[in-house]
Amino acid sequence: MTGETPRLRLTGTAKRFGAVRAIQHADLEIKPGRVHALVGENGAGKSTMIKIVAGAETADTGTIEFDGKPVRIASTTDAIALGIATVYQEPQLFGELTVAENIFLGRELKRAGRVDWAEQNRRVVELLERLGLPARHATAAVNTLSVAEQQQVSIAKALAAEASVLILDEPSAILTDAEIDVLFDVVRRLTAEGVAVIYISHRLDELFRIADEVTVMRDGKTIGTYGIGDLTVRKIAELMVGGILSDERPHRTVPDGPAVLELDGLGRAGKFHDVGVSVRGGEIVALYGLVGSGVSEIAASIYGIDRATAGELRVHGKPVRPRSPRDAQRLGIALLPANRKAEGMFGFQSIAFNISAGHLKLLSRFGTFLDRGRERSVAVDLITRLSVKTPSERQPISAMSGGNAQKVVLARQLVERPRGRADPGRGRRREGGDPPDHHRAGRERHGCAGRDVRPAGGAAHRRPHPGRPRRHDDGVLRPGRESGGPAGGGGRRGRVKQRVLPPPVTGQEAVLVGVLVILWTALAVSTPAFLTAGSIQPLLVATAPVALVGVGMTIVIITGGIDVSVGGAIMVCSVLTAKALVDGGVNLGVAVLLSVAAGALLGLVNGVLIAYGRVHAIIITFGTANLFLFAGLRIFGSGTVNGIPGTLAFFGRGPDGRTLGVPHAFLITVLITGLAWWYLRHTAGGRHFFAIGGDAVAARLAGVRVQRRVLLAYLMTGLLVGLASCFVIAQGTSTLDQSVGSGKELAVIAAVVIGGTSIMGGRGSVLGTLLGALLVQSVASGVTQLGWRSQLSDLFVGLFIILAVGADLLRARTRRNR
């Protein structure tokens, strides 16, 4: 293969993050049809290199060539267009979307302007079968899969891209041996087809099974590239650390003594059972088991995250039952989470903050005022002891490499002297084994008084820890659900569920229909006039503007944002339109066009500031709410706009505003809601909104134009605000006062939340919002007709919101416990 044109070549690459030089001078050359391993210690620059190739970061200097031609990779879109696909160590997936949606996100298969779900699902089944996953996973939501299965879905996603360069960032870290064999078979087939593979692994021995060449990085520089036949595990490790490794194994004697921690028949229904472990002071005990065997769940029960349902936990011989992490901490138990990023890091905060969090009382004067000097001293000491590579303890942890960030999370557990530490590692390790600083610091802190329980998921560690290993094979009881590996008969295409999309109506919407039926029945019994046309028609007219703006708000919240400026925007649009009707005598079409254009402009202001200014939506829209209110009051001039003609009667309460007894405003709202439902459900753009709300960073890495989509969400909301303002004007008399729009944002948000949209983003339903708006207005109407105080309406709506949020949390907990 001498003289062969490299598929990818990076020359003189450098990248700096603030004062930290992540890469100083690095070269990388990848050949087609070869597996090229990239190795190095934590902080060596591997992650930064692959982010540059994947378009997630841009190099400060250096050149990139693809198939011998200079290219510029400025974004993930550029990388995807070149045929570069990346599988990151942390699965970049979207829990609320199905496996099929995740795999084709950003490159959906379309037919007649809509996603071709059947064809997309068929191709996904083929990909899953190549990886030994059941075909039924194609239509399953990703958040119902195990972590190992999610990693395999990430690999299937890369395969679907038909990449010419495939980057695998520690793909085997959380896979079983059987799953790794399947992965290697897939990699070999890809290289036989000419695909170039960049392989990063924490397990040096597996490189000799799959790699052709190895590039070693150290301190941001490439040390060299070697043929795999010229290397040994020892040689690779010595190149990584820049020195000669000693064969002498550290000797440590664990003194005899009573057990510090004992698990006696410990169990948790559906997770693990009959676990017996005894750990002495100064001892490290490893719990070995495959991913899904229950080892991580055992650690969670020890730490009080989940409560054991059987057996006994003893600390220093005394039975204890920690009901929360706080209880566990008081008992001297610490936990190093398996998912450091999601469960152990405060990403925007400094290293010092991350280390001191959880120990503020210890680091405070008089238990109240934080001693900054002591916080800094403790942070600097632990940074030194754990060899954390950083220019300062003030550096945000989000700017650090994965290995160094992991050391910071560990440092937090060492601030005080824990009696024990549970480390559900899931098999994620540094190259060549676990970090020596990690072990050394733990022994220094624990001495002979502490203990360390380390569940090791995935394939068993090949480097034994001092202490006694415990094997835990069958702790998980999950009837009818595979934890990975070959799918067997369950993976055949003929057994795939016919449905390729979630049901058109969710459980929340069905519940809301039931609540409305009960409420309307109760009101009809109490006030027979409630179900008459004279009562229902005004109710539907009042519902229309709230539901219409709610459709836009639903899309905004699905993307992870919020818009509290809609009340002020309604005021601006309403007064502009009213003055145009009074002073300009415009017709219906011009009035609607003017109002919609004004709303679009206001929505565009929000969208640009949020999407491109990268300021949180609550801050921007709170500010623009006040600006819109000020602008509306200035346009009003005097207290009211009088003499508004009946031009907008088409949207009003009178006979001209109805067809077959149904108000036009409500009919239009239902039509727009239906169109929005179809758009969100059946188009690629609609599904991208859900992806952004699930994880905006992962969506960007998948090639979704996040900023444009966020801008579009606020623009759509502005358009709907403009139309809703016409409905508001038509509801009233010939006078418009300065209270117009007041409190509308609260009613809209209430309708959205009651309708089942998660305020955290990533999940929502415009149909639910329509039903939620109808419920909110029905409550207000019912309270008025019953002659009760108007404040009771707010009370009932508040209770409905609490119930909706509680139901959402309950569903989330149920999914986690499956």
Could you characterize what this model shows?
- The structure is a single chain.
- With 818 residues, the protein is of the alpha/beta class.
- It is built from 27 helices and 27 strands.
- Strands 6-9-10-3-11-12 form a 6-stranded mixed β-sheet, sandwiched between helices.
- Strand 7 and strand 8 form a beta hairpin.
- Helix 18 crosses helix 24 and helix 21 crosses helix 22.
- The longest helix is centred in the last third of the chain and has 26 residues.
Using only C-alpha atoms, the radius of gyration works out to 30 Å
CA-to-CA gap between the ends?
A: 51 Å
Tell the overall outline. globular
Question: pLDDT below 50 for ≥5 consecutive residues: which ranges?
Answer: 426-436, 442-451, 456-469, 473-498
Mean pLDDT: 82
Structural class: alpha/beta
Percent strand: 15-25%
Number of helical regions: 27
Largest sheet: 6 strands, mixed
Helix content: 40-55%
Give me the count of strands: 27
Order of strands side by side in the largest beta sheet?
6-9-10-3-11-12
Summary tags:
single chain, 27 strands, six-stranded mixed sheet, alpha/beta, five-stranded parallel sheet, 818 residues
Write the layout of secondary structure elements.
Layout: E1 8-17, E2 20-30, E3 35-40, H1 46-54, E4 61-66, E5 69-71, H2 76-82, E6 84-87, H3 99-103, E7 110-111, E8 114-115, H4 117-130, H5 147-160, E9 165-169, H6 177-192, E10 196-200, H7 207-210, E11 213-218, E12 221-227, H8 233-241, E13 259-268, E14 272-280, E15 283-288, H9 295-302, E16 310-315, E17 318-320, H10 325-330, E18 333-335, H11 340-343, H12 351-356, E19 364-365, E20 369-370, H13 372-385, H14 402-413, E21 420-422, H15 436-446, E22 451-456, E23 468-471, H16 507-526, H17 533-558, H18 566-584, H19 588-613, H20 617-636, E24 640-641, E25 658-659, E26 662-663, H21 664-682, H22 684-694, H23 696-701, H24 706-731, E27 736-737, H25 744-754, H26 766-785, H27 791-816
Parallel strand pairs: 3-10, 3-11, 6-9, 9-10, 15-22, 15-23, 18-21, 21-22
Antiparallel strand pairs: 1-2, 1-4, 4-5, 7-8, 11-12, 13-14, 13-16, 16-17, 19-20, 24-27, 25-26
